[in-house]
TrEMBL record:
Heme c binds at C36, H40, M85. Keywords: Electron transport, Heme, Iron, Metal-binding, Transport. The lineage of its organism: Bacteria, Pseudomonadati, Pseudomonadota, Gammaproteobacteria, Pseudomonadales. The keyword Metal-binding applies. This is Cytochrome c-551. Residues 22-106 form the Cytochrome c domain. Pfam families: Cytochrom_C. GO terms for molecular function: electron transfer activity; heme binding; iron ion binding. Binds 1 heme c group covalently per subunit.
Length: 106
């Protein structure tokens, strides 16, 4: 995806394709491959909150994607109950992609 975006920026300054579908596809794939379903579901609370609940809670927060990316990467506790979320084995870029994808779940 980086090569595509770099090429788009190089030839036109800004990409003419919408980025949201690309991020959504990548986010869904990361969700499936990074172990997220062990504790989270898109629309049902399991061990952790549903992603629809997370998206609703942070919908109006300007820095929501950055905050969620940090929590995905580092883990956290106390926001959704007593069970802590362990750090995830993701890169910074993967954490950002996952965070943006989570926020699109409505």
């Amino acid at each position: 995806m980086k090569k595509i975006l770099i090429s788009l920026f190089a030839i036109g300054g800004t990409p003419s394709l919408p980025l949201q579908p690309l991020l959504a596809a990548d986010g869904n794939e990361l969700y499936k491959t990074k172990g997220c379903p062990a504790c989270h579901a898109i629309d049902t609370k399991t061990l952790g909150p549903s992603y629809k609940d997370v998206a609703a809670k942070y919908a109006s927060q300007a820095d929501a994607a950055a905050m969620l990316a940090a929590k995905i990467k580092s883990g956290g506790s106390g926001t959704w109950g007593k069970i802590p979320m362990p750090p995830s084995a993701v890169t910074d870029e993967e954490a950002k992609t996952l965070a943006v994808w989570v926020l699109t779940q409505k």
